[in-house]
Amino acid sequence: MRAGDMVISATEGEIKEIFTKTQTIAIVGLSPKPEKDSNKVAEYLQMAGYRIIPIYPQAEVILGEKVYRNLDEIDEVIDLVNIFRKTEFIATIVDKVLARDDVKCVWTQLNLVDNLAAKKVLSSGRCVVQDLCTKIEHQRLFPAS
Asked: Is domain 12-135 annotated with CATH 3.30.1330.30?
């Protein structure tokens, strides 16, 4: 936990390790609109070398990648699930993550916290990051040379 706000989340060292070991990131709520934060973050992560799998209900292709409607449709290995959906959807998404054997980490973006769902992730032996932006954290931990 982080002191002060009581948000359950990985430590800085754990976050660095997550980025180092991750290859494929499924982004739940990845908008096709370039002006949306989810799209900007996904594009950054792609440029940083990660494979992105978009999950969105209404598009066919986002950032050159085939779009899936939900995690159940994806038959390739996912290392990390990055959530851009409202807090009330986190528990349902976590249940879908826990039904998979491949996902090693769940990450919720800024202002998205569900400590009960986070505890479920941790008790399954996986890591969780809450209320942090993958792009901001990656830039901070791996600054461009």
From this structure: no
